[in-house]
Structures are given as C-alpha cells and as structure tokens.
Amino acid sequence: MAITALTNTANWAANRINTYLLGTAPTNLIAYTLIAALALQKLSQLRDGRTRSWLFNRVIHRLLQVPKFQALLQAKLAKQFAESAKSIQKKWAPFGDPLREIPERGASYAALMTLIHKYNEITQKGLQGRHYSGTIYPMGPECAQIAAGNETEDTALELQNLFTNAYRYANLWNPLHTTEFPVGSFLEYQVVQMVASLFGGKDVAGVVTSGGTESLMTAAKGYRNWGLQKGIAPGEAVIIAPDSIHASLKKAADDYHIQLILIPTDEEGRVDMDAMENAAEKHKSNLVALFGSAPSYAKGRID
C-alpha cells in the first residue's frame, strides 16, 4: 500500500512537471537540468558547517518576511522581554528607585559614600552563605577559617588594602601612552614572562587583556592569521573544540570568519576523543588550532 502511494505521488509529480515544461525549448530544458544538478551539488555540501549555517540563516530570513511568522516572533519576544523585566525589577528592588536622568545638582561626598555603603551592604547580604565558581574569589575571615590557619584575618585585610592602594595610585596610568607611562608595558612584560615560564616559555611576546573573552578571541584571531600565512583562504580556517568551550570562541568564529567544529561532550563534560581525532583528520588541511578548557566554565572538567 505504501509502495502504491509513493508510485501515485511520483506519477502526479511527473505529470505536473511535464505539464509545466510543455512547449519549453530544448536549450531551456538543458539549462534547467544544469541548474538542478548544481543545486543538488550544493545540497550535498551541507555537511560543511558554514554552508549549513548560511542556509539556515537564509531560510530564517525568508520566514521572517512572512507576516504570520513575524507576529509569532514578536509575541515570543514580547513575552521574554516582560519576563526579563520582571526578574530584573525584583533583583533591583532592594536598591531603591533607579535614576533615569542626570541630576541637576551633584550629590555630596557624604551622600555618595552613604549610597556606596548601602549598595555594599545589600550586595554582601546576598552573597552570604552561598558558594560560587568563576564569579568571585574573596579572601575574607570565612576563607581564612577554611584555610585551617594557613591564612589569617590580618592577611585578608592586608590583601584588601594592597588591592585598594594599587588601584588608588594606578587608576590614572594610561599604558597606551608608553612615553608618559612606560610602567604599564614594564608590568605587562613581567606578567607575560611569568605566565609563559609556567608553560616552559622563555622570552615570549604577549599582551595582557581585559579578561577571558578578549584573551580567547585574541588567541583565535592569532591562529586565524597564522592560517592565512600558511595559505589557508579567508573563511576556511578551522578550529576544533568541545561543545563545552567558552562562548567567546563562538564569538571569535563569527567575527573572524573561522569554521568552528564543536565536538559533543557527555553529561559530565567529557569530550568524545574519537570524534575529536576524526574531525582533526577530516579538516587537517585547514586546521589551525584545537581548543580545550582547563577547566570548562560550565562543569569544571579538564579537557
């Protein structure tokens, strides 16, 4: 019965095509055949992640031009916006009403300090009794107790004062102006060399970034540029990483036109090494880097 249905469908499609092409010049038929063949060839290349992404984006773009889909999207976005606004307002409630315009008169030093103390008390209260990873690493009395006597409350206070004074004296240093502020590049050089020494490096070049996202994106761009020097065409460089990798690598792939191949991980964050090796072999001609995490942001797994 299923075969009969398929046969009927095929016959119906063939009749429709024959009716549509009835009277078409032979040269046009040849041209249509060639176009169809090229289209099938393109479809066969959908294994390539960049091609899939391009096709997906084109389909979504076309769908969003349909009024019904536009209405569905707007309704979904409106719901998400309302839920997000409600959640944010709940978090902000203890701080009071937010300012929406610059005050006509500036606040006094005492008023600002009162506001800072208020914000700090509310923030500290929200942190008490909770554990964090990848967020903050305080060195307060509680941590000193956990350290079983290795650190004391006095040491924690000294560190706090050290950080405060470091910012107090250095906040107006502008390391972009190396003539006026050579201290910036001097400190940066020492940090880079000390970190490099942990990995066996010596007299290496490097920069200190603003954080993890910029560091990962800078590294990805460096590997992309290395690939260009090796003859890998723009947009063809491949980086392979576990799907637990930090989101900034995905940003780098978008911004620097890198093909990012993500390898699945299990529930505990372990990457499939066979899949990793197979992907590396498949893309070896355009492979510029393998990325891993130590540890991964989500589950703390060392790749």
Description of the molecule:
It is a single chain. With 303 residues, this protein is mainly alpha-helical. Helix content is 59%, strand content 5%. The chain has helices at residues 2-21, 26-44, 49-63, 67-92, 109-127, 141-146, 153-170, 182-198, 212-229, 247-256, 273-282; strands spanning 238-242, 259-263, 287-290. The chain has a three-stranded parallel sheet, sandwiched between helices. Helix 9 crosses helix 10.
Question: Summarize this, please?
Answer:
This protein has 303 residues and is mainly alpha-helical. It is built from 11 helices and 3 strands.
Structural class: mainly alpha
List the total number of helices.
11
Element string (H = helix, E = strand): HHHHHHHHHEHEHE
Widest sheet: strand order? 2-1-3
**Biggest β-sheet strands, sense, barrel:** 3 strands, parallel
Helical residue percent? 55-70%
Kindly state the number of beta strands.
3
Strand content: under 5%
The low-confidence parts are none
What distance separates the N and C termini?
53 Å
Mean pLDDT over the residues = 82
Overall morphology? extended
Radius of gyration (Å): 29 Å
